[in-house]
Amino acid sequence: MSETPTLAPKGFDPVEAGKLFFKFGHSGWLGLRYNDHADNWVELELPWRKDLLGEPHSSVLASGPIVSLMDMASGMAIWQTADTFVPIATLDLRVDYQRPAREGSSVFGRVECYRRTRSAAFVRGVAHDGNLDDPVAHVAGVFMTIGADPRTKDKPGSKGDD
Amino acid sequence: MTDTTPDQSLPAYARSLGVKVDRIENELPVLTVEFGANVEGRPGAFHGGATAGLLENAGYAALRTVLVREGREPVLKPINITVQYLSAGKQKPTFAQGRITRLGRRNANLSVEAWQDDRDRPIATAIMNILMA
């Protein structure tokens, strides 16, 4: 398999995309998993792991992996909302930590894309450990699109299967 | 990882990500991480989350260094972090160093920069607030 994930020729399916994204690289290393989605949001899961702990003498996940989780969920929320896989780059991401995640518990990152312009996409979301109404963190971010969907360059809609 | 000092002073997450103390500069640690699969996002580039992880660890490392010097050893709790991504992290080592903008009794405000070849052209910066309990 090539380095670039191969996605369906058009549209965006977070379930299928997750299978590819979470096999490789940083998100693969973190063990991210797809959990849920709707029209304009995607929720991913970061399983608890001993080697992702932050402070010594504490069993609380470091905040770094939560940033990675929210960054990834943000990207997928943008593709889900746009229904296309356009290359994007994170410009600005802010995370406000509300409380530590429960020991041994997965952290879920649910991010919605609430606004897209020609070149920017705005996201907001929460990280939680089971109860959306009792978040671990709030997140807000801005992403830039950095080109067209790479799949439309060579084979425009060759296998349209959505 | 078999390295002992000084990387053992870093949290499990940092060591697991491959973060190391590269050197001490102006009395504050410069952390580094090599490019590799575990930090890769878009093929050939650092994942924004991995860059944020390095920035955050550099922030904590700077704060701990200053606190130890003052004979303080509080539990550190994150309040927030805002990361600005300035350019893509390429397939080479990335460095980061934190600076304490204000050290209070209960809160510290830090700014952190990450760079690759040229320190004057950072690839990402972060502002962090950390609670000292």
For the structure shown, list the relevant keywords.
heterodimer; A: alpha+beta; six-stranded antiparallel beta sheet; 4 helices; disordered C terminus; B: 133 residues; alpha+beta; 2 helices; 6 strands
Describe the structure.
- The complex is a heterodimer of chains A (162) and B (133).
- With 162 residues, chain A is of the alpha+beta class.
- Chain A is 23% helix and 30% strand.
- Chain A contains four helices and six strands.
- Chain A has a six-stranded antiparallel sheet, with helices on one face.
- In chain A, a hairpin with a 3-residue loop joins strand 4 (107-116) and strand 5 (120-128).
- Chain A is globular.
- The relative contact order of chain A is 0.20.
- The model of chain A is unreliable at 154-162 (pLDDT under 50).
- Chain B has 133 residues and is α+β, with helices and mostly antiparallel strands.
- In chain B, 21% of the residues lie in helices and 38% in strands.
- Chain B has helices at residues 12-17, 48-69; strands at 20-25, 28-33, 76-85, 94-103, 107-115, 124-132.
- Chain B has a six-stranded antiparallel sheet.
- The N and C termini of chain B lie far apart (31 Å).
- The A-B interface holds A 3-4, 24-30, 50-56, 58, 61-65, 67-72, 87, 89-97, 100 and B 11-17, 37-44, 47-50, 52-53, 56-57, 75-85, 88.
- Strand 3 (88-97) of chain A pairs antiparallel with strand 3 (76-85) of chain B, so a sheet runs across the interface.
